[in-house]
Amino acid sequence: MQLNLKTINKTLIVSAFGEIDHHTSEEVRDKIDRYIDASSARNIIFDFTGVSFMDSAGIGVIIGRYKKISPLGGKFAVTGANAQVKRIIEISGILKIARYYDNVDIALSNM
Amino acid sequence: MQLNLKTINKTLIVSAFGEIDHHTSEEVRDKIDRYIDASSARNIIFDFTGVSFMDSAGIGVIIGRYKKISPLGGKFAVTGANAQVKRIIEISGILKIARYYDNVDIALSNM
Amino acid sequence: MDYENSMRLEIPSKSENEAFARAVVGAFASQLDPTVEEISDVRTAVSEAVTNSIIHGYENTHGMILIEASIKNNLLKVEVTDKGKGIEDITAARQPLFTTKPELERSGMGFTVMETLMDSVDVFSEPGKGTRVVMTKKFNSIA
Amino acid sequence: MDYENSMRLEIPSKSENEAFARAVVGAFASQLDPTVEEISDVRTAVSEAVTNSIIHGYENTHGMILIEASIKNNLLKVEVTDKGKGIEDITAARQPLFTTKPELERSGMGFTVMETLMDSVDVFSEPGKGTRVVMTKKFNSIA
Ligand SMILES: Nc1ncnc2c1ncn2[C@@H]1O[C@H](COP(=O)(O)OP(=O)(O)O)[C@@H](O)[C@H]1O
Ligand SMILES: Nc1ncnc2c1ncn2[C@@H]1O[C@H](COP(=O)(O)OP(=O)(O)O)[C@@H](O)[C@H]1O
Q1: Among C81, C91, C96, C136, which residue's beta carbon has the most beta carbons within 10 A?
Q2: Measured between alpha carbons, how far is residue B81 from residues B78, B103, C44, D45, D65 in Å?
Q3: Ligand 2: which residues within 6 Å by Cβ?
Q4: D126 belongs to a structural domain
Q5: Which residues pair with C133 in a beta bridge?
Q6: Cα–Cα distance, D30 to B17 (Å, whole number)
Q7: Using the beta-carbon criterion (under 8 Å), do A23 and C109 form an inter-chain contact?
């Protein structure tokens, strides 16, 4: 599971590559949490452009990070999901807590 | 199993697409034989550019067609094999009866 | 014309086999000449059921998972069976957001995902004995 | 660190399952972080063994084929078993160009292909009982 993490204007951009399931989610979670703890990021953008598959384990990761940053008033967005990932995002109801944008640039300008 | 068959200067060019195994080989064989019987082709070029996989069933098809045209003095060539197909061609000893060329144009100019 | 095929796969309950299991059932279902979406739906549902056997059924201990699939004309049936701890209250378990493993950040959406993506989902389970999830999906690509 | 995994697949002896069988073992072997060539070799060898069970073992009648694979560190073992007609003379059968089905345009190169692409090939067979082909291959991609 490859993960790119960077912060722009207090917004953490998480770009994942590959398949997110229970097996790979632990690593994703740990890497993001360590990065959040060490940085001054307030908002999170999950960029799924490089993700070919995600199941409900990915939902758990997203909700978990939401719970971590929302007490600090952070904003939350998801971007770049393919049809399969979008389906999971829709089913999960995550769009009640996060906005969906087509790409990171648009998401950033709405943070 | 998609198969394109055409004749140029009495040379039948067989271009196969997909995977050639026991399951698909029967169709390949039948289509080629019907074409040979109805045409004036003497030589055969097997073009594997579109073939992603072949096992020894494909060898059977090639040898069978060789037996069909060699009594009439026809020439025989194979072209465009990927690494996996080339391996099978080499193991089978088919290069004792057929020449290998990188592409159909070079093969045609040697017929 | 009637077309039938079947497969039966046994794998140990290792999390790296989640990807393998969905790849196998996806490859099996590809005989149905499916759309990309149909295959995605099946792969996702299988991933959920197999993951549940690993996390909830065997609670990350060692056990075997059986994945059976069969095709009859354009109907795919997939069964995922474990001999793990079983489910006390199946009706509660199937509720969206219900999870017994919040500490693992499970979202409780597994059954909901399966139900949304497949045409039918039946759950058979007995505490201490194990769980079987039977899912079907009709493929429209071939009539 | 010791790594182990295994799978056990049963499929009916239908020729359309040749492609499925090699896809499954290929997906299983992909855990070994293989090169394209290593995966091709395994897929091809599996295709040969499964095809033999279908054509020679069951002679195109209905039967079940068992495909077992296991990984131990960087060693892959694949076993293909049928309960078909069996082989009278295994040594003769393994000779290049030897085939009992020339009318089907079999080239007699199946075992030779398996032997060339895998590190070891063992054949166990009893006439009337069935055949088991056991193949191993060491993957170099992980040490
Ligand atoms: N194979 C299983 N064995 C035992 N319990 C299970 C199994 N599958 C599901 N469950 C139970 O049903 C609950 C809901 O499952 P699910 O909707 O997939 O959500 P999640 O996996 O996120 O908890 C699980 O938390 C668990 O208690
Ligand atoms: N599973 C099997 N059951 C019965 N006979 C087999 C089996 N596999 C191989 N054989 C015998 O061994 C011979 C050689 O096999 P092989 O080298 O694969 O060549 P081919 O399949 O082209 O005949 C076959 O022709 C057949 O007689």
Answers
A1: C81
A2: 8, 9, 35, 18, 31
A3: B 56; D 48, 52-53, 56-57, 82, 84-87, 93, 98-101, 106-111, 131
A4: yes
A5: C80, C123
A6: 25
A7: no
Task: Report pLDDT for C124.
Answer: 98
CA pair distance D52, D15, nearest whole angstrom:
10
Q: How does pLDDT run across D62-78, given as a tens digit for each residue?
A: 999 999 999 999 999 99
E strand intervals along chain D: 4-12, 64-72, 75-82, 120-126, 130-138
Output the CA–CA distances (angstroms, integers) from residue A85 to A14, A56, A57, C83, D97, in the order listed.
15, 10, 12, 30, 50
Question: How many CA atoms lie within 13 Å of B102's alpha carbon, on the beta-carbon side?
Answer: 1
Query: Residue D128: what are its φ and ψ, rounded to 5°?
Result: 85, -15
Tens of pLDDT, residue by residue over A5-31, are 999 999 999 999 999 999 999 999 999
The interface pTM score, or ipTM, of the predicted complex is: 0.94
Find the mean pLDDT for residues D22-28. Answer: 98
Distance CA D89, CA D71 (A): 30
At the top level of CATH, the class of A2-109 is alpha beta
Question: How many structural domains compose chain C?
Answer: 1
DSSP run (H or E) holding B22: helix B22-38
- Pairwise CA distance, residues C87 & C128, whole Å: 8
pLDDT score recorded for residue B40 = 85
pLDDT band for position C143 (cuts 50, 70, 90): very low
Nearest CB neighbour to C51, from listed A21, A59, A91: A21
pLDDT reported for residue B23: 97
CA distances from A93 to A32, A36, A59 (A): 22, 24, 9
Question: What's the domain range around C100?
Answer: 5-138
Q: Which of D58, D90, D99 to mutate to test the pocket of ligand 2 (most atoms within 8 A of CB)?
A: D99
Examine residue D61 and state whether it is found in any structural domain, yes or no: yes
**CATH code for the domain in which residue D25 is found:** 3.30.565.10
Cβ–Cβ < 8 Å for D45, D110: no
Q: How far apart are CA A4 and CA A61, in angstroms?
A: 16
Q: Residue C110's pLDDT band (boundaries 50, 70, 90)?
A: very high
**Are C84 and C57 in contact, with CB atoms under 8 Å apart?**
yes
Q: What is the pLDDT of residues B22-57, one digit of tens each?
A: 999 999 999 999 999 998 889 999 999 999 999 999
Domain for residue C143, yes or no?
no
- Chains near B with 3+ CB pairs less than 8 A apart are D
Residue whose pair of structure tokens reads 């690593």 in the numeric block: A27
D8 interfaces chain C, CB cutoff of 8 Å: yes
- Structure pTM? 0.95
Question: Which residues, other chains included, contact B50 with Cβ-Cβ below 8 Å and sequence gap of 6+?
Answer: B2, B15, B16, B17, B18
Asked if residue C133 is part of any domain, the answer here is yes
Of B19, B21, B56, the CB nearest to D109: B56
